[in-house]
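Section 3.1: Structural characterization of target chains.
Under the original work plan, the team committed to producing a structural model for every single-chain target entering the pipeline before any wet-lab resources were allocated. The record below documents one such target. The sequence was received from the expression subgroup and is listed exactly as submitted; it comprises 396 residues.
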Amino acid sequence: MTTLTDTTRDVLDPADCARIEPALARTVKPRVWVYRYTHRPTGWVLSIATHGEPGSGQLSLGGFRIAPEGRTSLPDYDNDREAIELAIGMEEKIQWSRLIGVGGPLLRAHPTALVGGKCVLRPTPEARVGQPRDAELLDFAIRCFEDFERASGVRLTTGQDLGHGTMSDGHTSSLAYVNRRFHGSMLADTSKPTAEGNYRVLRGMLRALDVELSRARVALVGCGNIGEHVLGRVREEGATVVVVEASEGKRVKLSVAGIDVHPPEDKDAVLASPVDAVVVNASGGSLDPASVARIAANPAVKVVCGSENLVMPDPSGAEELRAAGKVYCPTELGGMMGYLTAVEEYLAAHSGVAFDVGSLFEAAKTLEEAGFRATEVVRRSGFRASFEDAVREVYG
């Protein structure tokens, strides 16, 4: 334990992390460290979870999340566990992208030692972005990021995530604020490349099941920055779309645009409706056991995908969907384009070359072929093969 000026740093080693999150033992890379920073005057807590070995110089990649109230208010919420689980998901994205061979031109030309990580900040209400103490909160996080790099010997890259927006001064973006003050903070909008990856996976999966997107019926659960881009892409092709969205303001906007949109209390009814695909991009937990059961019982649903983090509280839901003849693409695979955008921007900034976000949209096309080929394998196996096994079979 080390004391900074007004902040305590505690380092949790892999054994500590395994006790907090037993699921680590079942992952491909079970060694995770957490650097927990506690701001004593306010109680703010920043948990930086990383697969990076101390002193390795590895690049730990994951978004900077200001944990939303919907997560922190859960009775069993634990900031360290949240960071660990999200870091596991990031490492899975890295593993999938390596296997499939997806990446921007800089990453492909200059392979680097990437590992999954995540920064999760638990604020107090008056310090959330848009509230009076938001700059103080972000300054605290930046000091911790700098200390983490010194203490761990691991490089930190943070990208877009939940909890950000316009600050209390009425014009500064919280991401821009951090970007100007910490070299590892990336500013690119990762939501659109992430959504493009979503769209490509969905398109490929449906095509493998003889459903062209132009005549598909798609349920979108969550229509924030990612979901809205997916919505636009599938509507461009003529798909019929129904949306479940928590934000009342966003529901009004979508309704004015002629979208069939519903509040969260209608989710069960939407999942039971005659849709070919369910695409999940909300803030977490969309594929809870009741929702999985609803989808499994719906004979119309053929595929489930998306990029939502912490989407399935009970991992056995994946097997339940497969047993019901649904093809489920893990959201870690569907969401990989966000991390690839952040690392491409990082490599551009540190190489002194221009960053081209368009190159990530081109790279995302690879995921359509991956979705198609893996779904074909699942279908040929009579749904005995999981999507993950199918990807490994296809890409070796």
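The chain has two domains: 2-187, 192-334+368-395.
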